Amino acid sequence: MTASDHRHELYTVDQVRALDRRAIDALGIPGYELMQRAAAAALVCLRQHWPRARRIAVYCGPGNNGGDGFLLAALAHEAGLHADVIALGESQGDDAVRARREFELGGGTVHPWQGSGELPLADVQVDGLFGTGLRRALAPDVAQLVRQMQARGAPILALDVPSGVNADTGEVPGESVQADVTVTFIAAKRGLYTAQAPGYAGQLQLEPLGLPESLWHGCRADAELLRVQTLAPRPRQVHKGNNGHVLAIGGDHGTAGAIRLCGEAALRGGAGLVSVATRSEHLVALNSARPELMAHEVNGPQALAPLLERATVLALGPGLGQGAWGHALWLTALESGLPLVLDADGLNLLAREPRQLTGRAVLTPHPGEAARLLGCDTAKIGADRFAAARELARRYGAIVVLKGAGSLVAEPEGRVAVCPWGNPGMASGGMGDLLTGIIAALLAQGCEAWQAACLGVGLHARAGDLAARKGGERGLLASDLLEPLRLLLNGKGA
Questions:
Q1: What is the pLDDT of residues 303-336, one digit of tens each?
Q2: Which residues are annotated as a binding site?
Q3: Residues annotated within a binding site for (6S)-NADPHX
Q4: What is the DSSP code (8-state) at residue 158?
Q5: What angle do CA 41, 203, 196 make, to 5 degrees?
Q6: Are residues 306 and 209 in the same domain?
Q7: Is the domain of 219 the same as that of 260?
Q8: Which of 191, 336, 348, 373 lies 20 to 30 angstroms, CA to CA, from 70?
Q9: pTM to 2 decimals?
């Protein structure tokens, strides 16, 4: 095993610092050598992405991130590129001071940033202002510099972390560099893959700096990235009864679309049978649009009971409402003890009447629903999505999918996986109903709750990316994901 085998592992800032310290103390690699390796890797990255670049502008902060920038500028100068360096004050720390001196001894000139002024012309700009340690908003003078960098229009390569992004949580508390590419060193920082960070990090590239596998011994990652997965091919002799029976419950007055999307996603997700328990007014529309769905009028718990007896998995919540009808069905469904996926108003009712869930259960809240479930505001959810997902899973005894950019999957014991796929076009109505149906179908086919949630989230996001590549992000509909979903579930498509 090599360092590259750890590319799917995500670490906290403190864990990365510990790895850095172990490389220095236990492996005997000087900190300055690590800085040299980072600068060399960054220059390779820059030339890979912008091979025609001849002028670069490197913006260096006072710490080691700035030291990486100074050494990158020195290497670029040696390679025949024109490198301008703009610095925020004096360098601090032995390695950063040494890196600055090396750049100057090589003939480079450092231009101090005075809070205003013209920035140099450049084909590529390099952000070496602040590294992983920044947790606060950028100071006003630095924020002004960042705004001017963005206004220049030249692409930006961020070293380790885009300045202004919290590398632990993905939060962006103020102004931030919006990078085209971020080259991150030693280990992947968990915050770069979720919350606001994906909109600022651009394309992420991990450089382990040639460190040996022994560096990672005994250091357990905080989280992991989802990998491309699908289900094994079905045996030739399979029949519909082998693939489970999903019962989708919801669709109060005026919300037939939500429960239809959920049911149709369960069909496309491979469930053998899908029934829908809904209002009578929706039956004609459902039967006409998707006759494979077995739609039933359910006016209360008594009508729901025989459907529960035939079901193997429940998809509970899309269009359910929080009135008397929805509440009665919700209670009856939970008391059945069947494996279930709980979404939308199913989650809002759970927030009103908290309970531990028994059996295989998956909750799929967006940040607003998560805030109601935890009794806080959405700002607190966004401030640390990892902590929120873990607390939800622990409190309710279920697998939790915290939706959003970089969706998180968490289990009660603390394990967390992060989805690296998806696109802004998926921020539209019905996407959550689709995810509910997909995960329910995977449960029905025998997946454990953790596997169903991880696989379902990955398939859903990848189907969104495939659909967006075909027609673009803007105007993407939830139903556009159904055909790509089928392809991906069968090992086809991208």
A1: 999 999 999 999 999 999 999 999 999 999 999 9
A2: 64-68, 127, 131-137, 160, 163, 258, 319, 366, 403-407, 432-433
A3: 64-68, 131-137, 160, 258, 319, 366, 433
A4: E
A5: 125
A6: no
A7: no
A8: 191
A9: 0.95
